[in-house]
């Protein structure tokens, strides 16, 4: 486990540099997430104090001028992700808040570690609490699960990939979390990689016809073809596929498919993969293992906010 650097070495915890997350997308996510909790989805008031006033519990029980400090704390061991987005949630409702990082995305943390420390108006901290935790817990859960897969195939040369099986409207965050866990992203959507599956082949008439049609319409796009058998894998690579999705093949068949392809296309194992067989599958020589469960089934990492009123 890597040691967590001292907070003094941390950059601004709200900085998105190096995350690959789009500034406008993150701003919109923060707005929508807070609006869901504070206004039932109606546009969030621009003025922070007006937005915070929608937290009926805190508005009734916390003096408007009361200040305090809150620690965002890990309640379980794991890999953290989404901290810059969580920090922006707090900053949206308390622009003058002081936010100090105790960890960075991608760090391995232990139960009890402080990930962020936020000092500001207590009403704002409490109004932002659940939205910030939901984002960071979800992203950290994905990063933690991804790291387990990456560790399972370490040394084999195989790379762990995600899929398009993401939570609607959260794909950039969830795929970022996969990267924080040491995995890689496959395609972001239907626009950046062509994935020819059985229905496309049926519509086009053959694998070769489907590949040719994609090449004609989108010549610069990577073309991936799904194969269920070694023969289909060979047919696809001979048709000009760049990438083969080897679907639900047992290890011995995967090994044969990799040998038959002989480096003419990249190979990806998918379908029915579990951590228990990850290393065996990786040892067949495939370039990638794609795991939909990283984004559709990872449990959250338990995080909490501990408040210290001034």
Automatic annotation (TrEMBL):
One Pfam family in the UniProt entry: QRPTase_N
A biological-process GO annotation: quinolinate catabolic process
EC number in record: 2.4.2.19
Annotated catalysed reactions: nicotinate beta-D-ribonucleotide + CO2 + diphosphate = quinolinate + 5-phospho-alpha-D-ribose 1-diphosphate + 2 H(+)
Highest taxon of source: Bacteria
SUPFAM superfamilies: Nicotinate/Quinolinate PRTase C-terminal domain-like (SSF51690), Nicotinate/Quinolinate PRTase N-terminal domain-like (SSF54675)
UniProt pathway: Cofactor biosynthesis; NAD(+) biosynthesis; nicotinate D-ribonucleotide from quinolinate: step 1/1
Entry GO CC: cytoplasm
Keyword Nucleotidyltransferase on entry: no
Region (Disordered): 1-20
Binding partners and assembly: Hexamer formed by 3 homodimers.
Function according to Swiss-Prot or TrEMBL: Involved in the catabolism of quinolinic acid (QA).
Family: Belongs to the NadC/ModD family.
The protein, known as: Nicotinate-nucleotide pyrophosphorylase [carboxylating]
